[in-house]
């Protein structure tokens, strides 16, 4: 027996082609969905990490700074520190004061906090400025 004429194969080929096209469309749709999902998540996740940084900084601040600068950054801690509300200093300068200390005024925290922890402290100190802004 000979193979059936090619005309019998044509519907099968057409079906295969249709399935392939469908599959392609499905993969594409999933890809687009995945991309859209990723973009939708990008904003909240970075907002959370900033909030985390501030929360971390707050813990360090309570441990190391509040007894001088006051719980609210008003400078009314029992050991006497500067008012940190409405600070005009740049982030770099605040980080510098924390790592190097201020001679005769404020101890150095270089050994206690690594750069990431210092940046969390800076983020928290910044919230005093935001709170004090009119
Ligand atoms: C022993 C008390 C003391 C401790 C502890 C202390 N500070 Fe200070 N800090 C001071 C004093 C006093 C000044 C003001 C120095 C001046 O005006 O010359 C100051 C100044 C600062 C300034 C202003 C720097 C500038 O350039 O204007 C920042 C910011 C600051 N402290 C942050 C912190 C942070 C954050 C911590 C905790 C990691 C901390 N301080 C711990 C006493 C302290």
How would you describe what is shown here?
- This protein has 134 residues and is mostly helical.
- The chain has a domain at 48-132: Cytochrome Bc1 Complex, Chain D, domain 2 (Orthogonal Bundle).
- Helix content is 68%, strand content 0%.
- It has 4 helices and no strands.
- Helix 3 crosses helix 4.
- The longest helix has 59 residues, at 6-64.
- It is globular and about 40 Å long.
- The chain starts with 5 loop residues before the first helix and ends with a helix.
- Mean pLDDT is 79; it is low at 26-40.
- Residues 61, 64-65, 68-69, 79-82, 84, 89, 93-94, 97-98, 102, 105-107, 109, 121, 125 line the site of heme C.
- Residues 61, 64-65, 68-69, 79-82, 84, 89, 93-94, 97-98, 102, 105-107, 109, 121, 125 line the site of heme C (HEC).
Keywords:
134 residues, mainly alpha, Cytochrome Bc1 Complex, Chain D, domain 2, 68% helix
User: How many helix segments?
Assistant: 4
Q: Look up the CATH topology of the domain at 48-132.
A: Cytochrome Bc1 Complex, Chain D, domain 2
CATH homology superfamily of the domain at 48-132 = Cytochrome c-like domain
Stretches where pLDDT is under 50 for at least 5 consecutive residues are 26-40
Total strands? 0
User: What integer is the average pLDDT?
Assistant: 79
């Amino acid at each position: 027996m000979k193979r059936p004429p090619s005309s019998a194969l044509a519907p099968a080929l057409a079906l295969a082609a249709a399935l392939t096209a469908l599959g392609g469309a499905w993969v594409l749709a999933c890809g687009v969905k995945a991309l859209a999902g990723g973009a939708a998540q990008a904003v909240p996740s970075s907002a959370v990490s900033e909030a985390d940084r501030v929360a971390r900084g707050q813990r360090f601040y309570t441990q190391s700074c509040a007894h001088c600068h006051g719980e609210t950054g008003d400078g009314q801690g029992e050991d006497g520190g500067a008012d940190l509300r409405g600070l005009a200093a740049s982030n770099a300068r605040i980080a510098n004061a924390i790592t190097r200390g201020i001679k005769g005024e404020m101890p150095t925290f270089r050994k206690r906090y690594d750069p990431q922890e210092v940046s969390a402290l800076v983020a928290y100190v910044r919230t005093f400025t935001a709170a004090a802004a009119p």
